[in-house]
Amino acid sequence: MPDIATHTPAAERVRVDVSSLRPLFQEPTPPMDLAAAVLPGHPDDPTRAIARMTAKIYLKRLLVQLRAHGDAPSSPEARRWAQGLVDCLLRLPHERLLRLVLRPGITSWTKAAAQVGEGTFGLGTRELLAHAGTFLLPGLLHPATLRDAEIPVYAEDGQVVLPAAHLALRVPGATGVLTARATGEGLRLTAGERAHVFPWECLPDGPDTPAEAHPGVRRLLALPGGPLLTGPLPWHRIAYPAEAERPLTPGPDALARFAESIGSGWDTVRRHWPEAADVVRDTTVHLMPVRSQGNWPFNFTLPSFRGLVLTSERHTYLAAQTLVHESGHNRFNSILDVYSVAENAADEHYSPFVEAPRPLVNIFHGVLSFLNDVHMAIRCADAYTPADGPPIAPYVEDITARLAVGLDTLERHARTTERGAQLLAGFRAAMPG
């Protein structure tokens, strides 16, 4: 684990005993061929192996930043809170720990925390650690895991939203930093002098785990067995990139319409390409709406918010294309966390997908994602008629032509690494026709 430069005396610094993680970080890299990562369903698909490697990268970053900000002298609670988070994380089974950190809240938090100074993003150390606690608490919801720890969490408008658990905990009147502790009765959230206890049996172990009803616990909307559906949460309003299209804040009716539209696409993926549904489930954990462009696609991912997809309302095969397309971007962003694909990845060349110059790495992104997109469309071609939306055949023809231009650009101009060459081989094999 890298050391952190600090002026805090050693005896008062946050302790990070990584001995329990040593077997995890010493795992050998499994053999893999990235050609098998291009389309879902390949028997040697390395997507989960790459996700595991990526999660270990973010786990290291998380522990480094918790220690750095816990050692900050500006807040008396900071060290206690950071130490509690570190101790609880190190009690988790490795598989649960890796799933917890490779989510949009934590991947974006590690980036923001590395940049933050006191007051950056309008955040102090207390608020920064509270947002980390909010994202991590869903994986820690067990009295043995939380023992002796005080975890900061963030409330807004009288609720604490726990995205990884698909839950909102009602704490009337609370806004700002709260603390969470384990008690014999349940999870206790304290806001000032008021405490709210949520029985353990009412806090599910995961999004799909049954739990007893409780008036203070609300399940958030999600696709069946799939991603969470919300508008922006407090953290997104703080750390979301200024240059990106802002997600909408839908009311209940608008969110239900969004769920119906994107849900029809989710059903389409599961029906016509089950292997792709498995990959979408693994790589896309949160969906947010953006303004509609009608049938025209308007969807994107953000590398720092790994697993988040922003999309306008689309239906059936159009929404299905969005889901597999953006899953391709999330997968490729994880590949880029682990491997370089070209020595000259930043060189700009014409991209047929945006019809303008773009870095070669963006063209890699476009080829991989549109290959998934077009294969989804081909699988839907016989199941949908023009009455369902724009005709599929002209779209397949257009995207296939653009893919051919993009692939030719990469083959002529990219000085590929070994992994980049594997991807190009996978692209060629996946070309329609």
Structure description:
With 433 residues, the protein is α+β, with helices and mostly antiparallel strands. It is 45% helix and 13% strand. The chain contains 14 helices and 13 strands. Strands 1-4-5-6 form a four-stranded antiparallel beta sheet. Strand 10 and strand 11 (308-311) form a beta hairpin. Helix 5 packs antiparallel against helix 6 and helix 12 packs antiparallel against helix 13 (392-413). The chain is globular and about 65 Å long. Residues 1-7 have low confidence and may be disordered.
Set out the fold topology.
Elements: H1 22-25, H2 47-70, H3 78-90, H4 94-101, H5 104-115, H6 125-136, H7 143-146, E1 151-155, E2 159-162, E3 167-170, E4 176-182, E5 186-191, E6 194-199, E7 217-219, E8 228-229, H8 234-239, H9 252-272, H10 274-283, E9 286-289, E10 299-301, E11 308-311, H11 316-338, E12 348-351, E13 356-359, H12 360-380, H13 392-413, H14 418-430
Parallel strand pairs: 8-9, 9-11
Antiparallel strand pairs: 1-4, 2-3, 3-7, 4-5, 5-6, 10-11, 12-13
What distinguishing features does this structure have?
13 strands; 13% strand; four-stranded antiparallel sheet; 45% helix; 433 residues; disordered N terminus
Compact summary:
The protein is α+β, with helices and mostly antiparallel strands and 433 residues long. The chain is built from 14 helices and 13 strands. It has helices at residues 22-25, 47-70, 78-90, 94-101, 104-115, 125-136, 143-146, 234-239, 252-272, 274-283, 316-338, 360-380, 392-413, 418-430, and strands at 151-155, 159-162, 167-170, 176-182, 186-191, 194-199, 217-219, 228-229, 286-289, 299-301, 308-311, 348-351, 356-359.
